[in-house]
Amino acid sequence: MEQTLVLVKPDGVQRGLIGEVISRLERRGLRLVAAKFMNVDKGLAETHYAIHKGKPFYEGLISYITSAPVMAMVWEGPNAVAAVRQTMGATRPTEAAPGTLRHDFALEVGRNLTHASDEPANAEKEVALWFKKDELVAWKREVDRWIFEK
Ligand code: IDP
Ligand code: MG
């Protein structure tokens, strides 16, 4: 089953939106695999955002993500990566579709509430970066057969 990394970033935590994010992903039918509430150290932030090093917003991004606790999670389901990105909405909240989290709860790209892996290969790397293998919980729900076709 495809897995993806989700972070409720510091703005989402401070604004009391952890529950809103979890609720939308649960409602979508995705299955929670792992979760931890944590501070992000500079090393983890720099590895996670290595692809953005050198961009004008990089320093601000590192200080944003390390400024206060985040809720880190792994969610799974068919096409979990695409499904979660869709539920989050476009990176820039003013370009995010109505009904997405970033549309409904954010205004600025530098305060856009969540992170979600952007493709399956990166999702695998990000899940391994943020979680140890034994922190991932393999489980089934009674309702799975009514949400997952196979
Ligand atoms: P994503 O989070 O939708 O995958 P990315 O392009 O990977 O978006 O950028 C990572 C994060 O960097 C964004 O979520 C946002 O918080 C921040 N970011 C991206 N572009 C800008 C910008 O132009 N100004 C400020 N922050 C930005
Ligand atoms: Mg990204």
List strands and helices in order, with pairings.
Blueprint (H helix, E strand, L loop, with lengths): L2 E6 L1 H5 L3 H11 L2 E8 L3 H7 L9 H8 L4 E7 L3 H9 L12 H5 L8 E3 L3 H11 L13 H4 L3
Antiparallel strand pairs: 1-3, 1-4, 2-3
The protein binds inosine-5'-diphosphate and magnesium ion.
CATH top-level class: Alpha Beta
CATH superfamily: Nucleoside diphosphate kinase-like domain
Shape: globular
The small-molecule ligands in this entry are:
inosine-5'-diphosphate, magnesium ion
Helical content band: 40-55%
| Spatial strand sequence of the major β-sheet | 2-3-1-4
Proportion of residues in extended strands: 15-25%
Total strand segments: 4
The number of distinct helices, counting runs of at least 4 residues, comes to: 8
What is the C-alpha radius of gyration, as a whole number of Å? 15 Å
From the 3D structure, determine the CATH topology. Alpha-Beta Plaits
**Biggest β-sheet strands, sense, barrel:** 4 strands, antiparallel
